[in-house]
Design goal:
The protein is mainly alpha-helical. Helices cover 54% and strands 5% of the residues. The chain has helices spanning 8-17, 28-34, 39-50, 54-71, 76-82, 88-99, 137-157, 162-166, 185-204, 217-241, 261-285, 295-302, and strands spanning 118-121, 125-128, 247-250, 257-260. It is globular, with a radius of gyration of 21 Å.
Length: 313
């Protein structure tokens, strides 16, 4: 038999996807140690070979496996534990964000979008789809940064008092005429969440979501958890089908109005970025030290590269 030598990429993948028999989450250091490499070189080699950082790949493939397990009878708790999550709640949030619906509803297809075609293949294998269309990396980064930065702002807002949330910081501020005044942190956070809910309702042909006056931050966190996965799944579907030029006839408008789907996504990203910066401006005015929400820093964190610190300490 011919000696074909070591398959180094296969060794790196084995280190990323090795089972943790204690049920805990595997860190980058754990993976690198199994591959006999430093964390820096391990991450660089795998990212260069697959276009995906080790921690992100492991998280994605284990969620794919969880989706397959749920479809074949596993409980949410069992799937959460096998995927390395400490709680069913944390797993449900991650699953909903990835698949666009909660784990109580079986996924039609257990594969998630990947930049390299590498996916979970039952029972314990990987499958490489050579024809997979990966989402445009700029689109993916813009949309995911928007969702995760909104998450971070909502989590930070849990620390604020009701007075801080409702104090008028920018009198007379109107971002979009039909949305009304956005003079407080609470107002802006509400519109960050409600905008995606409203557009998704139009796309899915549902009624306009009911508007809650001055919702609590905890409610906004739950609503954003629910809408974020569906929004990301919708954008990925548009990109996979090359459907950016499709038109939405929005019957929720009076009279009904037509929108090109690429302009809908661009509209949401534009005004979401503006609102996220408004929240930061208001927080600074209230004496809070917050970072700029830079997508460069966000991407570095996702690639396990060194950063200057947390955006929202």
């Amino acid at each position: 038999m011919t000696n074909v030598g070591r398959d180094r990429l296969r060794e790196l993948l084995d280190a990323v996807l090795a089972e943790d028999h204690d049920g805990g989450a595997r860190s980058l250091d754990d993976m690198a140690g199994d591959a006999y490499a430093s964390s820096f070189h391990f991450s660089r080699m795998l990212s260069r070979g697959t276009g995906e950082a080790p921690v992100a790949m492991r998280r994605r493939v284990l969620l794919e496996r969880a989706a397959w397990q749920l479809k074949h009878g596993s409980s949410v708790t069992e799937a959460a534990w096998a995927a390395g999550y400490d709680s069913a709640e944390g797993f449900s949030r991650a699953y909903s964000r990835a698949f666009g619906h909660p784990p109580s509803r079986p996924a039609e297809r257990h594969w998630l979008p990947a930049p390299n075609g590498i996916h979970f293949h039952p029972p314990l294998s990987l499958w490489v789809d050579a024809n997979e269309h990966a989402t445009n990396p700029l689109t993916e980064q813009l949309v995911r940064h928007d969702l995760e930065d909104t998450d971070a702002l909502l989590e930070y807002a849990r620390r604020l008092t009701e007075a801080e949330l409702r104090e008028v910081r920018l009198p007379g501020t109107v971002v979009l005429e039909w949305d009304g005044p956005e003079e407080t942190v609470g107002d802006v956070l509400c519109h960050l969440v409600r905008t995606k809910e409203t557009w998704l309702a139009s796309i899915d042909g549902r009624d306009t979501p009911a508007h809650t006056a001055r919702p609590a931050v905890a409610e906004l966190v739950e609503r954003h958890d629910a809408v974020a996965g569906a929004w990301l799944a919708m954008v990925r579907d548009l990109d996979a089908r090359g459907a950016w030029g499709d038109r939405l006839i929005d019957a929720l408008c009076d009279p009904p109005e037509s929108f090109v789907m690429s302009s809908v996504v661009a509209h949401v990203l534009t005004f979401s970025a503006h609102r996220r910066q408004l929240v930061r401006h208001m927080l600074r005015a209230a004496g809070h030290r917050v970072g700029p929400g830079d997508p460069i820093t966000w991407l570095r964190r996702h690639r396990n590269e060194e950063t200057t610190g947390d955006e929202l300490p």
